[in-house]
Amino acid sequence: MAEQSQRLLGDNNDNAYTSDDKEYGDLEEVHPRSRREPWWRTYLFFFAVLASLLSLLMLVKIGFFDGPATKSTQAAPSEEHVPETTPVPVAVTTTAAEVVTTTTAAASHEEIETEASFRRPESDYVLDPRWDYNAPPTVREYNWVVQNIEANPDGVFRTMTTINGKFPGELIRCNEGDTIVVNVENRAVNATALHWHGLFQNGTNHMDGTPGATQCPIAPGRSFRYEFTVQGQSGTYFYHGHQGAEALDGMIGPIVIHSRDEKKNQLLPYDTDRVVLVQDWYHDHSGGLLKEALAPGSESSPLPNGALINGANVVNCDAYPDRRCDNTTGARLPALDLESGASHRLRFINIGGFAWFEVSLDRHLSLPVTEIDGIDVAPVLEKTLLIAPGQRYSVVLTANETSTPDRAFWLRARITTHCFAEYTLAGQDNPQAAAIVRYTDSTNSRLKIDKNRIPTTNGDSGAYIVVCQDMNTRKAPNTYQPVPALRAPEHADHSYFFRLNLEIHGYRLQRGYLNESSYRPNLLSPALYRAIDGLKSGNASFNTPDGVASAAAFDRSTELVIAHKEIKVIDLIFQNFDEGSHPLHLHGHQMFVLGSGHGYFPGYESFGLKPDGRGLLDPHNDSAIANPVRRDVVSVEGFGWTIVRVVVDNPGVWKFHCHMIWHGDGGMGMLLLSRTDDLKDWTIPEANRALCEASASELELGAAPKDSLWTHANDR
Ligand SMILES: *[C@@H]1O[C@H](CO)[C@@H](O)[C@H](O)[C@H]1NC(C)=O
Ligand SMILES: *[C@@H]1O[C@H](CO)[C@@H](O)[C@H](O)[C@H]1NC(C)=O
Ligand SMILES: *[C@@H]1O[C@H](CO)[C@@H](O)[C@H](O)[C@H]1NC(C)=O
Ligand SMILES: *[C@@H]1O[C@H](CO)[C@@H](O)[C@H](O)[C@H]1NC(C)=O
Ligand SMILES: *[C@@H]1O[C@H](CO)[C@@H](O)[C@H](O)[C@H]1NC(C)=O
Ligand SMILES: *[C@@H]1O[C@H](CO)[C@@H](O)[C@H](O)[C@H]1NC(C)=O
Ligand SMILES: *[C@@H]1O[C@H](CO)[C@@H](O)[C@H](O)[C@H]1NC(C)=O
Ligand SMILES: [Cu+2]
């Protein structure tokens, strides 16, 4: 591919490699995913009936629509062709004032269409400027019904799992100090659980939504009330389903937490604020893909069929002759109408399951990055953003590019195929999603909000990034500076080293490993509850010295648990023996990123610390710990290393796992068990315990298939 062999120009700090780079040699064979008869055909009729019933219900509820249904589409941009079709209108004005205690998403009327009522209007992700940042602590309550629908975000129909029949999920917006209540009723066919990605859940570990670690899944027909207070953090987050790979089926949505100091810590002022979700998109349900990914002999992950921005894209239905596809009823490219001359905060979230994204905006090649994973940072100019799954970056964009006459630009979100062993998607699949960015100016007749203003810009960001590192790692150390500065502790109490790998063991099963451990969630008995029960009953196996927990308490081959009795400072060093990068997510914490690089971990001395992290080498040089980047998803480059320092002050069981979903569900994970001295006094609420009363077969609905499916096939 010509585009893949171009070099990234300009930025001296970028280590751009060409596609023939040795370090990314073809160690792994290409295993194209077999294109079998999609499993969902069987359920098609059932879901079609369900979906029509649902849309009927919705129409009744909103009292019909004001105007005729819009039947038009937009063509995706490509380097060689300019779209000619007419786009659908996109609302720019923000919605009515925030309802404080209960929020129910109501679709804007122009966009209601008989077959497309699942679509979320663009305006839902534009933050209403009338927000009260100084409101007293507020309880914000949401009522969510988890349900399966048949829907076609990009034109191709598939079975989805959604919240209230909408995709993507509604924005949760709150101030620091607010309490979030989410009443979840599971009317879907599989079990579910909702995880609040990046939220500390300090004191409410049992609300973290992690099956096998902090809760039993919510079985079909059951309900659960999530309730937690958002404390000590602000910025951009998201929620996603955490049972199996359900996050790929539609169980996702953004969270924005406002701090009272937001305007102070965001060093670039901005006039508008919005969320931009990017994600990979599969035309098959995750259930089948997960089984395929974990089957004997499978050494590669299912590749996405494309990408979405804010849940939307338009594919050419001719490319999918075997699929039910309709790209006319509301399939669209999202549009961001930005007032000319003003500044706009764009909160990018890679809400997808597997793909890294390179995001760029044509004609805007110095994007000031002002937030990393919820942490405000002093602006750093980037030409493009490289966002791993689970990561977030804010950009403050000034609409000052006046050399393009029509002031319309393509925003591109491109799957970084170099982060896959396969380098490429299947032939008909497009690795890029696009959105329209238009400047508006009510005093200039050429810059009216007009759906017909389609960009004609070409991709001009240079070339594509092919080394899958975090953006802070790509820059010289300390280029990114959190605001306000926060010094990492000087001394680590413990330093743990892990080998990170995908390995093929018995029965030709490839699984994710941390040392000799490949994580399997115990869906019937969460680790937190076992730990509390064990500690309460004085079972000595749970009351062991800090470090790897006793094998008598947790089976190390499937549950590697690193336990600490009290608040400690720990270092985690990951040495990646796999050729792919792994974005590792730690629940409930921000990690100080002390270093990261290619090859073997070079030792603490190389970045100015004493062995085992016990203090500074030179007391007058604290550059390693003065103000490191903090984040909740940190990547370990292929055949590289990463070291993070974590203050384990948050009581409970915290999952640490690769956020590339096929790796995470394939076992690349472990648990941190913190503050056991306090945990022994905890009582798990009855509502949590009640979820575990469902039968094993119900709790396992939608979970990753067990290895025994293949290793003891005849027992089942
Ligand atoms: C929608 O699909 C049709 C084929 O059914 C194709 O001709 C058209 O170009 C597609 N639209 C876009 C915007 O790709
Ligand atoms: C969590 O709360 C404890 C008090 O129980 C406090 O010591 C700790 O610093 C808090 N951690 C975070 C991340 O807020
Ligand atoms: C537009 O604004 C950006 C960021 O504020 C600035 O770096 C850039 O120089 C400006 N460009 C023009 C053409 O004024
Ligand atoms: C992981 O294995 C390495 C040896 O390969 C060992 O040095 C290290 O201590 C192990 N880590 C843990 C947490 O057991
Ligand atoms: C302690 O807990 C372990 C793991 O649950 C269990 O196997 C063991 O029997 C318990 N020991 C006692 C004395 O209860
Ligand atoms: C401080 O230590 C870092 C890491 O070892 C090193 O790169 C830097 O040059 C040192 N700075 C000074 C002023 O010595
Ligand atoms: C439900 O889960 C099973 C695996 O347990 C999976 O095969 C199936 O695709 C899932 N269906 C839905 C609609 O989630
Ligand atoms: Cu991974």
Name the descriptors.
six-stranded mixed β-sheet, globular, 716 residues, Immunoglobulin-like, mainly beta, binds 2-acetamido-2-deoxy-beta-D-glucopyranose, 11 helices, 32 strands, Cu-oxidase_2nd
Provide a brief overview of the structure.
The chain is 11% helix and 28% strand. The chain is mostly beta strands and 716 residues long.
Q: Could you give the topology of this structure?
A:
Layout (H helix, E strand, L loop, with lengths): L1 H4 L35 H22 L39 E2 L35 E13 L6 E6 L8 E4 L3 E8 L7 E4 L25 E7 L5 E7 L10 E7 L3 H4 L6 E10 L4 H9 L11 E4 L25 E5 L3 E8 L6 E5 L5 E6 L2 E8 L2 E3 L4 E7 L9 E8 L16 E9 L30 H4 L19 E12 L3 E6 L12 H10 L10 E2 L12 E3 L4 E9 L5 E5 L4 E8 L31 E2 L1 E4 L3 E9 L3 E7 L2 H5 L3 E6 L1 H4 L6 H6 L4 H4 L8 H4 L5
Parallel strand pairs: 1-2, 2-5, 4-9, 10-13, 12-20, 21-25, 24-32
Antiparallel strand pairs: 2-3, 5-7, 6-8, 8-9, 10-11, 13-18, 14-17, 14-19, 15-16, 15-18, 19-20, 21-22, 23-24, 25-30, 26-29, 26-31, 27-28, 27-30, 31-32
One 2-acetamido-2-deoxy-beta-D-glucopyranose binds next to loops.
Give an account of the 3D structure.
It is a single chain. This protein has a six-stranded mixed sheet, with no helix packed on it. It has a six-stranded mixed sheet with strand order 22-21-25-30-27-28. Strands 23-24-32-31-26-29 form a six-stranded mixed sheet. 11% of the residues lie in helices and 28% in strands. The chain has three domains: 41-70; 90-466, Immunoglobulin-like (Sandwich); 482-684, Cupredoxins -  blue copper proteins (Immunoglobulin-like, Sandwich). The chain is mainly beta and 716 residues long. A hairpin with a 3-residue loop joins strand 21 (494-505) and strand 22 (509-514). It contains eleven helices and 32 strands. The structure holds 2-acetamido-2-deoxy-beta-D-glucopyranose (7 copies) and copper (II) ion. Pfam families: Cu-oxidase, Cu-oxidase_2, Cu-oxidase_3.
